[in-house]
Amino acid sequence: MDLAPVLDGFGVVFQPTNLLYCLIGVVVGMLIGVLPGLGPAATIAILLPVTFGIEPVTAIIMLAGIFYGAQYGGTITSVLLRLPGEASSVVTVFDGHALARQGKAGTALGVAAIGSFVGGTVSIIALSLVAPLVASFALDFGPPEYTALALLGILLVSTVSSGHRLKAIIAACVGLLLATVGRDGFTSVERFTFDNLSLADGIDFVPIAMGLFGLGEILYNLEERHRALQAPATVANVWPSTQDLRKSSGAIGRGSVLGFVLGILPGGGATLSSLVAYAVEKRRAKDPSRFGRGAIEGVAAPETANNAAATSSFIPLLTLGIPANATMAVIFGALLIQGVSPGPQLVSEEPELFWGVVNSMYLGNILLLIMSIPLVGLFVRILRVRPTVLAPITVLITLVGVYTVNNDVFDIVLVIVFGALGYLMKKLGFDPGPLVLAFVLGSLLEESLRRSLLIFDGDATGFLTRPISGTLLVAFVVVALLPGVRALLRRRDKEKEPV
Amino acid sequence: MTVPNGTRGNGTDGQPADRHADGERETPAGEAAGRSADPESRAGDLPGEAQADATRPGAHGGLDLDEAVREVEALEHEYRPPAAGAPSNVLTAAVVVVLGVAALVGASSLGSGSARQPGPGMWPMAISVALVVLGIVLLLGARRSSDAEKFSGASLLVLAGLATMVVFVAVIEVVGFELPAGLLCFVWLRFLGREGWRMSIVTSVGVVVGFYLVFVAALGVPIPHLF
Q1: Is the Cβ of B25 closer than 8 Å to some Cβ of chain A?
Q2: On chain A, which terminus has fewer CB atoms closer than 10 Å, C or N?
Q3: Looking at the partner chain, which of B12, B123, B173 has a beta carbon nearest the beta carbon of A409?
Q4: Is residue A218 part of a domain?
Q5: Which of B55, B79, B221 to probe the A interface (max A CBs under 10 A)?
Q6: How large is the average pLDDT for residues B154-172?
Q7: pLDDT at B38
Q8: Quick check: A482 and B52 CB within 8 A?
């Protein structure tokens, strides 16, 4: 492995601007992690207009910092208030809050911070080794491989996402449909524009992401019944004892590996890996009944895994150009806006960007460890900021922010429309994540599909005779049919058993 | 490389027979988990190839994962309105079908071309067909579905919130952003957030001044403004 670009990457990180934006990113990430309500995908979407004025590498360093920073911050709210700040910290609530009630909030936060740091760092090192290999493997992917890969990626994200599988796939289809709006790249025919000039170039990614993730989430939260907020438990000593550390070291180790692996998979990512890590620890434990009553492993494992996964989910994005989850879809959009198309050539053609972003994560994790242990008191105080005050400010930032992209009032209209759609989708059980993901991959998918058909001279069996695209498509069919097969098997089992 | 090993060894359903033996011991608290334990563990043994294997942890985890997911969902729904009834689910599915049909009509007017020479309508047509089919499947299962929420009195708050945004965009080109932004902020604080009068007014004025200083004075964004 050639180390020169890796070291140059550190040079990129230590440029003052990049240091500053890395710090901004992790602080914002930590803040939105602590505050319940907005998740990282929403925050990154709302901040998209900010990234227009800065260098691509700087922008992505900041956005990445928000993503993994949120994994640290989410813990604090889960432990202190029994109110997950972040979807990926929900499972931490069980044991984290139990520990807090026993007066051991500090221990829980300390172990979680150390676990997050270890998980994140292990994952960055593994990413540095794995990503270039994946990229070089994918370098000679042609349009047929991309077609198959994008299809499989969208399907996996839809089927693995929480909630209704069928509805997630429907959302993805709507995303693909929205991506076709505008002038067709091959024939210049206008599609679904309804003679609206603003739609001729297609729908911008920014209002879609800001509306569905940002406004949609804020509107959805309006309906939440007001919870009686208890005063946060006091945090005394955040430094965990050697005994606690010894107890949780196994969980941290397993969480790191598990998080890294699950983060790479499309549809995996932070939330899923935190759940799986928790389940694994519970299953391994000699006395599983401790879980839910303040087992330190129940905090260490998910917090380690979610951070490791947050890091490794950059691999499919930066090496294949396939975002593995909703947040990555927004970062993908940010890169496209910057004129960078992520894919296998990124590592070799834009090494400063690739290694700059990857290496900035070492620094970001160190900053977050400092913020989570010595400075944790500061962030606990932020819990007193009322969400009712933040909501209108966020709405205004969204409305004004989307205007600044093109200085066009039509974009404000679009963001409101997608905000309403995002609210309705969440309300009716449709995850907006697959829609946004399918939207960003939509034009790539259609383009490679049509190019492939041209290559094959109209013979669609060509997809199956190429080894990689063939394998991917078989996997697509297996993933698509599996739930149905399982349901059938289960029904048959039920019929066999006498009631 | 420890990676593939990790999936299998630590995965929730990777460990077969010997793990199922202690199934009972592993399902404490949630009674629900006990019921589903059997079919779940059997599904975990379905033969699959490399790719399917990779999706296992999420697609069909073992009982512990299921239990964790259920607990998480219960926690997240603690403060949410109850599930919607069948009419609402049927309507949702119908909207999906109608959307698919409309897109299909629009796409077919674009011309699908042939496989050798794909036209601009081919791809949208394929998606529309998928939408119609998926919508019909959704419609068939609509009575049993429980993941949509009921529209309640609180939904009016959302409408009010949307209304403030519509007002904002409707008048911004006429009177600038300051007044509609202040109004939006005030309505959200006082009526949607139930803050006090004084607090709402002071904060709204402060927010508008802040936005003016940042976007107009400092960044020079050409957003329509009064002053």
Answers
A1: yes
A2: C
A3: B173
A4: no
A5: B55
A6: 93
A7: 36
A8: yes
| Type of residue numbered A147 | T
The predicted model scores a pTM of 0.84
- Tell me, yes or no, whether A187 lies in a domain: no
Which residues of chain B make contact with A457, given a CB cutoff of 8 A?
116
The phi-psi region of residue A298 (left if phi > 0; otherwise alpha if psi is between -120 and 50; otherwise beta) is alpha
Share of chain B above pLDDT 90, in %: 37
SS3 A207: helix
Q: What integer pLDDT is reported at residue A214 of this predicted model? A: 92
CB contact under 8 A, A392 and B185: yes
Within an 8 Å CB–CB cutoff, is residue B108 touching chain A?
A: no
pLDDT at A172: 94
**Residue A69 contacts residue A364 (beta carbons within 8 Å):** yes
| Residue A376, domain member (yes or no) | yes
A271 belongs to a structural domain: yes
pLDDT at B40 over 50: no
CA dihedral (A399, A402, A407, A413) in degrees, to 10, reads: -60
- Taking the Cβ of residue A229 and every Cβ of chain B, the question of whether any pair is shorter than 8 Å is answered with no
Alpha carbons B220 and A186: distance in angstroms, whole number: 39
State how many domains chain A has. Answer: 1
Residues A216 and A421 sit within 8 Å (Cβ to Cβ): yes
pLDDT of amino acid A121? 96
Phi/psi at A220 (5° precision): -60, -40
Q: What pLDDT is attached to residue B49?
A: 34
Most B CBs within 10 Å: which of A89, A157, A180, as the mutation test of the B interface? A180
Q: Does A104 touch chain B (CB under 8 A)?
A: no
Domain span at residue A341 reads 4-146+233-406
Asked whether the beta carbons of residue B158 and residue A186 sit closer than 8 angstroms, the reply is no
pLDDT of residue B116: 79
- Name A321's Cβ contacts closer than 8 Å, sequence gap at least 6: A332, A341, A342, A343, A344, A346, A444
Cα→Cα distances A79→A91, A96, A242, A343, B40, Å: 10, 5, 21, 39, 31
The string of DSSP codes covering chain B is --HHHHHHHHSSS-S-HHHHHTHHHH--S-HHHHHHHHHHHHHHT----HHHHHHHHHHT--HHHHHHHHHHHHHHHTTSPPBP-HHHHHHHHHHHHHHHHHHHHHHHTT--B-SSSB-TTHHHHHHHHHHHHHHHHHHHTTTT---SBPP-TTHHHHHHHHHHHHHHHHHHHHH-SHHHHHHHHHHIIIIIS---HHHHHHHHHHHHHHHIIIIIIIS--------
Q: Which residues contact A26 (CB under 8 A, 6 or more apart)?
A: A65, A66, A68, A69, A364, A367, A368, A371
Residue with the bigger pLDDT between B101 and A84: it is B101
pLDDT digits (tens, 9 = 90+) for B177-212: 999 999 999 999 999 988 899 999 999 999 999 999
Of the candidates A193, A215, A174, the residue with the CA atom closest to the CA atom of residue A417 = A215
Residues 6+ apart with CB under 8 A from B88: A428, B148, B150, B151
pLDDT band of B65, cuts 50, 70, 90: low
Interface test with A, best of B5, B41, B64, B200 (most A CBs within 10 A): B64
Q: Which residues pair with A183 in a beta bridge?
A: A190
CA–CA separation, A407 and A404 (whole Å)? 5
Listed as ranges, residues in chain A with pLDDT below 50 are 499
Q: Which of A224, A288, A489 sits opposite B28 (nearest CB)?
A: A288
- Give CA–CA dist A183/A202, Å, rounded: 7
Residue A190 φ then ψ, to 5°: -85, 130
* DSSP helix/strand/coil, A488: helix
Query: In degrees rounded to 5, what are phi and psi of residue A87?
Result: -55, -35
DSSP letter assigned to residue A290: G
**Residues of chain B neighbouring A474 (CB-CB closer than 8 A):** 49, 51
